[in-house]
Amino acid sequence: MERTATFKKDQFEQFFCLLKSFGKVFAPVRVSEKSFSFKSIESPSQIAFEALRTILPPKKFFFQQHEPILSYDENGIHEVKPETQQQVIFGVHPCDLAGLGIMDKVYTASPPDPHYIARRQATMLVGLSCMPDKHCFCKSMGTDSPTSDYDLFLTDIGDKYFVQIHSANGLNLIESMPDFFSRPEAQEDQTFKDFWTTRDKAFSSHFESENLPAIMDMEWNSQVWDDLGNRCLSCGNCTPVCPTCYCFDMVDVASLHANRGERVREWDSCQFVGFAKVAGDTNFRPGPVDRLKFWYRHKLHGFEDPHGLPTCVGCGRCTESCPAGIDDIVNVVLRLQGKPSILVTDKKKTQAGGCGTSCGDCQCDTADGDQHA
Amino acid sequence: MVTASAIPQMVINMHNHTPCQSPFLPNQAKLRSITPMSQDNYLFEFLLDKPEEFSSCMPGQFVQLWLPGVGESPISVCSGRTDGTLELCVRKAGRVTGALFNLTEGDWVGLRGPYGIGFPIDDYLGKDIVLIAGGLGIAPIRSLWQYLLDRREDFGKIVLIYGMRHSQQLLFRQELKLLLRRSDMRVYIAAEEVIGPDLPTVSWQLGRVTDMIKQAEIDPGFVAAICGPPVMYKYVVEELKQKGLSPSQIWLSIERHMKCAVGKCGHCFVGGTFTCRDGPVFRMDSLRFLPEVIEC
């Protein structure tokens, strides 16, 4: 199902009311000078339309950071039913939609996860077009156009939004206010196409992804992993910010009343030292090199992985949030492929006291391409 | 729209799914008996609330044992017959197993499973089999020998090789004594060191599992089922290769810490597969292209 419509930007207030008629609206909100977060909003003025990447991806709405799965008491074990509410997630960019597509695949695969599915079914996803910055490489991963099971997608075409309608829910919503939307005129179609052509040319970070699985296999013992892994702090920042990191732990939280408690699912990170530990203190990935290599392989390998997909969508969150500057996926892939690195040039040259990486926090981008990777 | 779609993304329609039960919901099981086997290893027998869910359990599969308020742990099924009860041989090693040792008969726990793919009984039909266990690896191997001996005429020769670090860690002493008396199977038991006041009452030798493999009559036509500590595999596989076995005749049970057991949580992810779903028993040649499984 793919239909199109347009509406005027200055009438966004009405569109917002339409979204509110479906459920609670969440959208990117500026939370500090440089960062954005999906938050519940009451008025369109709160929306940060310029937000490129939020701190956490929209997976947090469906696969929650902390979620009771079971409870127990004197009467036995009980399943905790997911609490759902009708909600709209507004302003989801194509990379995050692709990320949700991968999460959908993981959590609907047998056995399906009732908590994820219930939340996902109660949600309307409204996408929004964006212009890539230096960290974006969704084009390389093939996730630069809206994919997955979204409802509406808005493309900014000047004084109007061009709306792609992708689901029955989305269509119902549009049809509930027929006078508000108009059919796109030929000129608007052209502007829409021009936008995506311009956007396609705007990517400064790019690599060829066709040979990624083979490259990841043949470079398993590469020196690259030692170079990067030895700088890894094992902080685990790269995993919660990733739209497709789905690993979790299950922990028991007992109440003070000893006979009662809950079994809770919590986000976990493969970068933590205990992740691959088994009984007897054997650790299958004892060092940061092993763990970082594992993460990279999971993100980029693809074919052989259980869900048949590479799980990187090119959002650039890990690159931006890594304090050691080693999650620069684009440059790591280029280095593995034996190609020259891309330099991020819009920052000051290395200053004494900087960390010597491209962490983005201490203004110390190196001029040396190799170190940069 | 001009976009480069390098990798096709399959789209899941989320509205096609109907409500389902949580895959993490365990069944209640009552602790029926506790048998100390060595200092830190007890055999726990559980009376199942829903025996039908475990009736299809095959040797090599595992269950998730849940102690409310403490946590969950993957444990290999230790009994070859699961008709209403289930036996688990557990070493006191961590938080969950430590708490299990504090339980008494009549206490209840949560059990869900069985999970994973066990030893390929169909592939073993009519063949000569060598079972190799190191340490606590005897637990899943025991379920396999019980299963094989219950259907003895369906299989060829059976050789059991069991090695341990210290002689006092010998498990299933009484059962092994009976096995040693059987004329339709050969049993080799080895310990690397003698510790403790008395020698075990079964005939055993000083040495390693690999020494026993050298001694045993194993032809190139045998199939092998192995379970032991991760460090053991490399040496055992090398020894079996010396005996003429090819990787396609060797099955290994891989150890990982499964947290969800349903192929989601990522803890047992190795190479390109989930150990909980595609394993824990793998045929040796299928591991060849998986990095970081075992060193061999």
What does it look like?
Chain A has 373 residues and is α/β, with parallel strands linked by helices. Chain A folds into 2 domains: 3-64 and 81-201, no CATH class; 212-238 and 269-372, no CATH class. Chain A has helices at 12-22, 94-108, 114-121, 138-141, 168-175, 186-201, 212-218, 223-229, 288-300, 317-321, 329-336, 369-372; strands at 3-8, 24-30, 36-40, 66-73, 76-79, 87-92, 123-128, 152-156, 160-165, 248-254, 261-267. By secondary structure, chain B is α/β, with parallel strands linked by helices. In chain B, the strands form 3 sheets. In chain B, strands 10-9-8-7-11-12-15 form a 7-stranded mixed beta sheet, sandwiched between helices. A 6-stranded antiparallel beta sheet of chain B has the order 4-3-6-1-2-5. In chain B, helix 6 (232-242) links the parallel strand 11 and strand 12. The termini of chain B are far apart. The chains are: A alpha/beta (373), B alpha/beta (296). Chains A and B meet through strand 4, strand 5, helix 2, helix 3 and helix 4 of A and strand 13 and strand 14 of B.
Report the radius of gyration of chain B as a whole number of Å: 20 Å
Biggest interchain interface, per-side counts: A-B, 81 and 61 residues
**Uncertain ranges of chain B:** 1-9
CATH superfamily of the largest domain in chain B: Nucleotide-binding domain of ferredoxin-NADP reductase (FNR) module
Number of DSSP strand runs of chain A: 11
- Name the overall outline of chain B: globular
CATH topology description of the largest domain in chain B: Rossmann fold
Determine the N-to-C terminus distance of chain A.
Answer: 42 Å
Strand content of chain A: 15-25%
Strand content of chain B: 25-35%
- For the CA atoms, what is the radius of gyration of chain A? 22 Å
Low-confidence spans of chain A: 345-373
- What is the C-level CATH assignment of the largest domain in chain B? Alpha Beta
pLDDT averaged over residues of chain B:
86
Proportion in helices of chain B: 10-25%
Largest sheet of chain B: 7 strands, mixed
| CATH architectural designation of the largest domain in chain B | 3-Layer(aba) Sandwich
Which structural class best describes the helix and strand composition of chain B? Answer: alpha/beta
Number of domains of chain B: 2
Strand order of the largest sheet of chain B: 10-9-8-7-11-12-15
What is the global morphology of chain A?
Answer: globular
